[in-house]
Amino acid sequence: MMRRLILVFIACMVLAAAAIAGVTAAEETTKERLIHTSATGEVTTTPDQAEISVSVQTEHPDPRQAQSENAAIMARVIAALKGAGVAESDLKTTGFSLYPNYDESGSIFAKNIKFYRATNTLLIRVRNIGQAGDLLDLTVANGANNVNGISFLVSDEKQLSLRNEALTAAVTRARADADTVAKAASLTIAGVKEITVGGAYVPVPRAEMSYADKAVATPLQPGEMTVTASVSVIYLCA
């Protein structure tokens, strides 16, 4: 009987010691000295590609004639672009419409159709941004009569490289902030507990414009764009 009581007592002591150790470990974990920082890195670059949106618009009292004339002109525009080296995969129809235009001078209850307007819109991906102005002029010379706008882009390969640069800059800035705070608090950075990588942002500059017949080439200035990336870092301090 006495031996059984002794064994029970020893078991209770072991459990109590384990519980105390667990509480101590938890306290040590909660007493970690941490510095939380967030930073954004920026890289400035110039676009290397462009997208041009142009339309062919035709009008005729006969809707079939309006559509037929429109199709012939757009076919000429596309053929000219392909002849200039634009790949078929870089040409995309983004809209087509055919609708009547009414004579507003008559009765509101019996409006007469003046003509039908057909509009076909084409999006052109320009892989060599230096050709953007010439290709724009080429579309107009072959019958495109509406330029909807131009967007300047960064290729996927260049975006990846710039994102890596922006992330590196963000991490460097986050560490510099942590070092400044640690020094002010008489602490030393001992390591990194956690890093969270945010998304990257690549703006798409867009030039809204209209086009009138000109005898000179259209000058296009893509300007600069800034790629950004952000990180959040938790540093361990000693």
Secondary-structure blueprint:
Layout: H1 2-30, E1 34-45, E2 49-60, H2 63-83, E3 91-103, E4 112-126, H3 132-141, E5 146-153, H4 156-184, E6 189-201, E7 206-207, E8 225-237
Antiparallel strand pairs: 1-8, 2-4, 2-5, 3-4, 5-7, 6-8
The CATH architecture of the largest domain would be 2-Layer Sandwich
Give the number of helices: 4
Number of E strands: 8
Percentage of residues in DSSP E strands: 35-45%
Structure description:
By secondary structure, this protein is α+β, with helices and mostly antiparallel strands. It folds into 2 domains: 31-46 and 155-204 and 221-238, Protein of unknown function (DUF541), domain 1 (Translation Initiation Factor IF3, 2-Layer Sandwich); 49-153, 2-Layer Sandwich (Alpha-Beta Plaits). It is 37% helix and 37% strand. The protein has 4 helices and 8 strands, in the order αββαββαβαβββ. Strands 3-4-2-5-7 form a 5-stranded antiparallel β-sheet. The chain has a 3-stranded antiparallel β-sheet with strand order 1-8-6. Helix 2 packs antiparallel against helix 3 (132-141). The model is unreliable at 14-28 and 210-215 (pLDDT under 50).
What does this entry show, briefly?
By secondary structure, the protein is α+β, with helices and mostly antiparallel strands.
Structure keywords:
elongated, five-stranded antiparallel β-sheet, alpha+beta, Translation Initiation Factor IF3, 37% strand, 2 domains, 238 residues
